[in-house]
Amino acid sequence: MTDLKCKPSKMSREEFVGVFGGVYEHSPWVAERVWDAGLNEDHNRVEKLAEAMAKVVASATYEEQLKLIKAHPDLAGKAAVRGELTAESTSEQAAAGLGQCTEEEFARFQEYNAAYKSKFGFPFIKAVRNSNRFEILKGFKERLTNDVNSEFSTALAEIDKIAASVYRICKTVAH
Description:
The protein is mostly helical. The protein has helices at about 15-20, 30-35, 45-60, 60-70, 80, 85-95, 105-120, 135-145, 150-165.
């Protein structure tokens, strides 16, 4: 297990939500509920904190989960072009090389984003940090054949993977 450089168990609610409230895209309620459930020394470990946050999402209502999914931006979408992504999303997409798309690849992303949203009613979610634009485009094509329930579950699992990189947030926080 990996220890966090900050100590969530020693933080006030305000500090904890300030540091971890953005782990789940535009959904500080996840961090609020984790803190409200109680933190202990185990939560100073990356895996335990990520597990606690994932449990909160899993126990949320369908409406809360859907809102969380819809809070995520399109991959290589218009928000990225306009510079409107959160720092975490910008970093994730940059790590996958999405800013290096050719015009043709960018057009394919737009087509797939539109087709995916039309079919499922929410954006395509993929933890892209250890991926590349070619794998992501292939994933779009494959996942467009799924049913809505499978994709809903997949989206939540991918969001948890994205959030599991929570330890990076603590690097500059000292407690």
